[in-house]
Amino acid sequence: MSRDPLSSNPTLRDLMQRAERHRQAEIDILAALPEPLAQGVRFLRYQEGELVLSVPTSTQASQLRFRQHELMTTLRQQAGFEFLWKLRIKVAPPRFVERIPPAPLSLSKENARLLKEEAGHTKDTALREVLEKLASHIRS
């Protein structure tokens, strides 16, 4: 017999309801934003008429601040935001940025030929070996 953990723990049930209200408020706020500005915006809180949003870049924060009156007017028409009087925007860059490893570099045939030619004119044997090794990394 399985028990529903939400029915036996009122605190957990309250927490789940708050999380659902927060999720729905974020959906409503993002729907009120123009499409290009909604990218990366997160709803932090709405308390005592103050709405706090988080954005990844300062440029996006400036654009939202420029349009804050329009956004507040739109949001005041929705249930739950009737008493919105202040909008705060915080910049919070993403913590982890996925970096794409750089493509391995290779030489063109012309550059490889020039390196080999230069290696042939070099008297220093160590430098000649390095130039010849570099010349072997040509594009296929």
Topology:
Layout: H1 5-8, H2 10-32, H3 35-38, E1 42-47, E2 50-55, H4 58-66, H5 68-76, E3 86-91, H6 109-121, H7 125-135
Parallel strand pairs: 2-3
Antiparallel strand pairs: 1-2
Helix pairs in contact: 6-7
Strand content: 5-15%
Order of helices and strands: HHHEEHHEHH
Low-confidence stretches: none
| Rg measurement, Å | 29 Å
Task: Indicate the mean pLDDT.
Answer: 87
* Strand segment count: 3
Task: Describe the model.
- This protein is an alpha+beta fold and 140 residues long.
- The chain has helices at 5-8, 10-32, 35-38, 58-66, 68-76, 109-121, 125-135; strands spanning 42-47, 50-55, 86-91.
- The protein has a three-stranded mixed sheet with strand order 1-2-3, with helices on one face.
- It is elongated, with a radius of gyration of 29 Å.
- The mean pLDDT is 87.
Structure characteristics:
140 residues
Question: In short, what is this structure?
Answer:
The protein has 140 residues and is of the alpha+beta class. The protein has helices at 5-8, 10-32, 35-38, 58-66, 68-76, 109-121, 125-135, and strands at 42-47, 50-55, 86-91.
